[in-house]
Every structure is written in structure tokens, then in C-alpha cells.
Write a structure and sequence with these properties.
The strands form 3 sheets. Strands 2, 3, 4, 5, 6 and 7 form a 6-stranded antiparallel β-sheet that branches. Strands 9, 10, 11, 12 and 13 form a 5-stranded antiparallel β-sheet that branches. This protein has 28 helices and 13 strands. The chain is α+β, with helices and mostly antiparallel strands and 664 residues long.
Length: 664
């Protein structure tokens, strides 16, 4: 092995011009390809790749509600009386700003004030699909509403409403449904809201103490687009600062996956630059103090720099990107890579013949490099993409550093004034420390053996961190915003997200319905506090046909005639014409037909469509479960049991995703 590297040295030593050309080519080409590598700032790359984690990542990437950014407009002095009107004024300014330039390039939708027209639009959707909103248990309520006494009371209440100012607005609704059956369906929309701690004030989502307003932003770019989202959040900070100048009694905070991802990305870059910079600085200082030669730090660090560039170039050619976290771990690699150049440089101090240095070091450095590089390459067999990146970066860094140390570095070392062959080597502190032989100290050896026995038992007490949320870094303002959002949402229950999958939405809904029995049991026992999502509003075609048939059987010709006769009889007492209730008769006798779930009018509502992911050949439906923290293991066991059934449900325990549904 030594003969091989000596022959390379002799070849370049006789052709110095070729050496400089070859060295320049190596650095330029490595730097060129290294500059093209894409830095991945997705912290989920730490997670291992398995089917459940892959589905989790797919869920987070495709679920639109998971990407929402919650903006909280709050009263600064919480002890003072509530002033909701000042909050709505500030919220209106924020919404107006977000709907104008430059936010149109970053924001897909702003959920701010709910207009009155939306309520009537919802009412119309429910009314035109009324049988689909009624479960079997609702027909007991329907029996009560169609009793003669209740019909008489409803007609009287409708008359009083029509002669009031509200009659101009509710006239059409009363004519179409004088018994108020539609409101049974409207209450079903509350299922879209997992939290009941919010109410509506002047169309805004406001906390019950009237001191906080919640706005929801849907960014155009996913949380992984941190470069673009960093610009978006910078613009949002500017909008917040300008809005708060004339209103010092109000605060505005925001929280969501987008903000957390940007915070992680910024901190990862800072940490990477800091750790690498500190490591390089300490190595340079140590080398300078040890060798006491001006060229020593430059010569020793040159293979390390080349190794890093060579590694990034190879990563670009092999996979195109690398995790920033993996680069942050590169400070460990620096400490290993610098050893190669140190061995060559230090050996030359004691043996001022570079060819003998190569003969002595070629074999141990090559074999040692193979074992270390092989160990890092073994990380390709682990399931974590980040650890795979660490292994790839470290292995190629060491390959580049070791080859540079044995091929190029010897020529730079012998440049200039060579040390005299007979000159004595001055031993410094590090030399004297390296000459110490601790293995000859029996007390020290026995002490280490004794501690090994102690550590064998105490090591089993180490616990591993199970909370994956602790991987996230959050600036103080984001932590405060998260705590405020948790307080407002009354997170005494843990949030679990359940995903039902299928070849299409119809099949996904069937799988979701198969889990209802287990969920109802958990609700009855108190293990589940509440469920949310559109799982019981969007219906499979089979369930639609079942409910339509139940409606048709209920409204038999005899029942319809009896109800209409009572309506006309009671209506005549208040001056209603005989044909005033013809629209209601058409409502209960019209023919309904099942439609594909994708064509449901509810899919036009963001609070429904945000929970649905449609792709070619697959579909998924998300649901929210509020779990009693003390009984979460019971819920997890029940959900795991669902995985063994053909319902194809998946679940993940998480939090900090803002609510998406308006309270009904």
C-alpha cells in the first residue's frame, strides 16, 4: 500500500504543473456540485420510514387543515372588562391586509368574518338534502314536530316571526319548512367543530370571554417550503406591527405548522453554522498551538475542507439533497477527518522524509479509513432518512479527507523550508500527554473495571424521550402563542387524528362508518370526550340510499295528508292562504337520489373539504377525537384493534393544529 502512494507522490513530484492543475480541478469540481445540493429542512426526516410513519407524513402534507395558521387577536389587559368591538375592528384590519398585496402570493384563503349569506347558504344546502342529515334516532324528534299540538305552536311562532322585522329575512325559510325540521340537520354541522369553546360575535370566531378572536390562514405553500414561508411570516410580522401601532391595548400572535417549520429551519441553519464554525475555530487554535507553524492550520484543515466539499458533491450526484440536521452532525465528522492530516503532518515532524512517512502511514490510515467509512455506510440500512444522510455525508467526507491527505497533502507539507534531519524535535505539552501510559497504572485499570460493573446496572435506568414534539424548536413568541391557543381551546383532552382510507371517497366513508361502533362505545364510557369532522355528514352511497328510503317510508301519503291538513287548518287561524305551505309539501314528497360523495354540496365548505384528500386511485377522510389523557392507552388499544379489521383506519396522537369549523 505504501509503494502505491509513494509512486503517486513521485509521479506528481516530477510534474508540479499537473499537481496544481489536478488540485484546482478537484476543488473547483467538488465546490461546483456541492453548491447545487438541496438542503432539506423537514424535521420529520428524523422519523423512521415505515408504513405508519409514511401515512403520517402523507396525512400532514395533504391535510389542508393541518397547514392552517391560527392568528389570535387578544385583549392585552385580561383583567379589564371585555371590549369585543375593538377586537373585531383590529381583526377586520388584519383580514383586509391579508387579502391584499403582497399576501396574495402567500395566502390561499383567510377565514375571518362569516357573512350572513353563509348561514342561509348552509340552510339551503341542508334543506335540499334533508333526508341525508337525519339519523334513525332523529325520527322520534320528527314524530314530536308533526304532532297536532306542536304544529299549532309552530304556526303561531312563525306568524309572530313574520310580523317582526326578522320576517323579511326568514320568510322564504319559513315557507319551505314551517315545522323547523331543517334545524335538526343544521345541528349536525356542530360535528365539524371538535371544540365548543368558541362562539360567533359579529361574524367572528370569538372566545366565550369575548377577549380573543381567532382568524385562520390557509397558506399557498406547505410547511416544507420554508424559504417562501419565511418571507410570508416576515410580511405578516410587518402587518401585525403596523396594525398594533394605533391599538396598544391589543396583541396579535400566530401559531401553526408553517410557523413552527420556519422556526425549525432558521434555527437548524444557525446551529449548523455555529457548531461547524466553533469546531473549525477550535481545531485551528489547537493546531496552531501544537505545531507552532504558520502554515500548519491551513495545511491540516485543507483535507477536511476538501472532504466536506467532496461529500456534498457526491450527495448531489447520488440523491440531490441532504438534511440540514445531518450537516449539523458534521462537527463530529470534522474531528475524525482532521486526524488523517494530523497523522501525516505530525509524523513528518519526527521523520522528515515524506516518502518514509507515506510508507509508514499508508497501510494503517487506509485500513482505519475503511473500517470507519464502512461503519458510517452501515447507516444506510436504518429506517431514518436523516441518519442515512449522516452516514452518507460522513463516509464520503472521510474518503475525501483521507485520499487528499495521502495524495495531495504531502506535496504541500514539503514546500518551503524543510526541517533539518538531525534537528531535535521539541516536545510540547500534548507530546508529553501522549507519552503517558495509563495502562501501566493498576489502580486506574481496576477503577475503570469497577465502574464498568456499576454502569452495567445503572445504564438500565436511562429512559428514552417518547415525546416526538420535543424535536421541534420554537422561539419564545411561538411557545407563548401555543400556550395561549391551548388555553383558549381548553386542551384538557388530548387530540387524536384518525384517517380512513379507500380507493375512492365512497369506500373511505364506508371504512369510516365501520369504526362508529367502537367510537360510540368509547364516547359512552367517557374515554372519548368528543369527536369532530365530517365523518357522519358525508355519507357513502349505500348510507344515502338507506336514509332516503327511511325518509320516504316515514312520509307516507297518509302521514303527509294529515300533517298538511293540520298545517292549513292552523294557518287559517292566522290568515295564511291554503297554498302557503305547498313548498313544504313539495319538500317532503320530492324524490331524492343518492349521489357520489365527491359531488356532495357539503364539499364546497372548507370545514368539510379540508378533511378530505382526493388523489388518483385513492381517497382519505380525517376525523378529530378528543381523548381523556388518563385513558389514552384505552383509546389507542381500541384504535389499534380497528387496524386489524378491514376498515383501514389509521390514527396519530398530535396537537397544536388549530380548529377549522365555525361553531353552529
Amino acid at each position: 500500500m505504501g509503494t502505491f502512494f509513494i509512486s503517486i507522490y513521485n509521479f506528481f513530484n516530477a510534474r508540479k504543473w499537473l499537481l496544481w492543475l489536478f488540485t484546482a480541478f478537484l476543488f473547483i469540481s467538488a465546490a461546483f456540485f456541492a453548491s447545487k445540493v438541496k438542503l432539506e429542512e423537514d424535521i420529520t426526516r428524523v422519523l423512521p420510514q415505515d408504513p405508519k410513519i409514511d401515512r403520517l407524513n402523507q396525512f400532514l402534507q395533504n391535510s389542508k387543515f393541518a397547514d392552517k395558521l391560527a392568528v389570535i387577536v387578544s385583549q392585552r389587559d385580561t383583567a379589564a372588562p371585555a371590549n369585543p368591538d375593538s377586537l373585531t375592528a383590529v381583526a377586520e384590519q388584519v383580514v383586509t391586509g391579508l387579502q391584499s398585496e403582497p399576501f396574495t402570493a402567500y395566502v390561499s384563503q383567510v377565514t375571518g368574518r362569516m357573512e350572513d349569506t353563509l348561514l342561509f347558504s348552509l340552510l339551503g344546502r341542508v334543506q335540499s338534502n334533508l333526508p341525508l342529515f337525519l339519523e334513525e334516532k332523529d325520527y322520534a324528534t320528527l314524530d314530536s314536530l308533526t304532532s297536532p299540538a306542536r304544529i299549532a305552536g309552530a304556526v303561531e311562532a312563525n306568524y309572530n316571526t313574520l310580523i317582526s322585522p326578522a320576517g323579511m329575512v326568514l320568510k322564504k325559510s319559513i315557507a319551505a319548512d314551517p315545522l323547523g325540521i331543517t334545524w335538526i340537520g343544521m345541528k349536525k354541522l356542530q360535528q365539524l367543530q371538535a371544540d365548543d369553546t368558541w362562539t360567533l360575535y359579529d361574524g367572528y370566531l370569538m372566545s366565550k370571554d369575548e377577549k380573543n378572536i381567532l382568524l385562520l390562514i390557509t397558506p399557498k405553500n406547505g410547511p416544507n417550503k420554508t424559504d417562501i414561508n419565511k418571507q410570508f411570516l416576515s410580511q405578516l410580522d410587518g402587518l401585525i406591527d403596523s396594525t398594533l401601532v394605533p391599538t396598544p391595548n391589543v396583541t396579535i400572535t400566530y401559531f401553526g405548522a408553517t410557523a413552527v417549520a420556519v422556526g425549525n429551519a432558521v434555527q437548524l441553519r444557525k446551529d449548523t453554522l455555529f457548531t461547524q464554525g466553533v469546531t473549525v475555530l477550535l481545531l485551528i487554535v489547537l493546531i496552531a498551538l501544537f505545531f507552532r507553524r504558520k502554515r500548519a492550520p491551513l495545511l491540516v484543515m485543507m483535507p477536511v475542507v476538501f472532504g466536506g466539499l467532496f461529500s456534498l458533491a457526491m450527495v448531489y450526484l447520488l440523491q440531490g439533497s441532504i438534511s440540514v440536521i445531518a450537516l449539523g452532525a458534521g462537527c463530529v465528522v470534522l474531528g475524525v477527518a482532521v486526524n488523517y492530516s494530523l497523522h501525516v503532518f505530525n509524523h513528518y515532524r519526527h521523520l522528515p522524509d515524506i516518502r518514509k512517512v507515506l510508507a509508514d502511514l499508508a497501510m494503517p490510515m487506509t485500513v482505519g479509513s475503511f473500517t470507519t467509512v464502512g461503519g458510517f455506510f452501515c447507516l444506510q440500512f436504518v429506517k431514518s432518512p436523516m441518519l442515512q444522510d449522516v452516514g452518507l455525508f460522513a463516509a464520503f467526507s472521510l474518503i475525501g479527507a483521507s485520499l487528499f491527505s495521502l495524495i495531495i497533502l504531502p506535496h504541500f507539507i514539503v514546500m518551503g523550508k524543510a526541517p533539518a534531519k538531525d534537528a531535535p524535535v521539541k516536545h510540547n505539552l500534548i507530546d508529553r500527554l501522549s507519552g503517558w501510559r495509563p495502562e501501566r497504572n493498576k489502580k486506574l485499570v481496576y477503577g475503570i473495571l469497577g465502574l464498568t460493573v456499576v454502569f452495567f446496572f445503572t445504564a438500565r435506568n436511562v429512559e428514552f424521550e417518547s415525546d416526538m414534539m420535543r424535536m421541534n424548536y420554537m422561539p419564545e413568541k411561538l411557545r407563548n402563542a401555543e400556550e395561549k391557543l391551548n388555553r383558549l381551546n381548553d386542551y384538557t383532552a388530548q387530540t387524536v387524528y384518525m384517517l380512513s382510507e379507500g380507493a375512492d371517497l365512497n369506500e373511505a366513508l364506508q371504512h369510516r362508518a365501520a369504526a362508529d361502533t367502537a367510537l360510540d362505545r368509547l364516547l359512552s364510557t367517557g374515554a372519548l370526550k368528543k369527536t369532530g369532522g365530517p365523518g357522519k355528514l358525508l355519507l357513502s352511497e349505500a348510507e344515502q340510499r338507506k336514509r332516503i328510503e327511511r325518509w320516504k317510508n316515514y312520509w307516507s301519503p297518509e302521514r303527509t295528508a294529515a300533517v298538511m291538513a293540520t298545517l292549513r287548518q292552523e294557518g287559517a287561524k292566522y290568515g295564511f292562504k291554503p297554498d302557503a305551505f305547498n313548498q313544504f309539501q313539495a319538500l317532503v314528497t320530492q324524490e331524492y337520489a343518492a349521489t357520489r360523495p365527491e359531488q356532495s354540496p357539503l364539499m364546497e365548505l372548507p370545514s368539510v373539504s379540508d378533511f378530505v384528500t382526493l388523489k388518483d386511485g385513492s381517497a382519505s377522510l380525517s376525523g378529530v377525537l378528543k381523548v381523556d389523557p388518563a385513558r389514552k392507552n384505552e383509546v389507542y388499544a381500541a384504535l389499534d384493534a380497528l387496524l386489524a379489521q378491514p376498515c383501514r383506519a389509521r390514527w396519530w396522537s398530535t396537537s397544536n393544529i388549530p380548529p377549522t369549523g365555525w361553531p353552529s
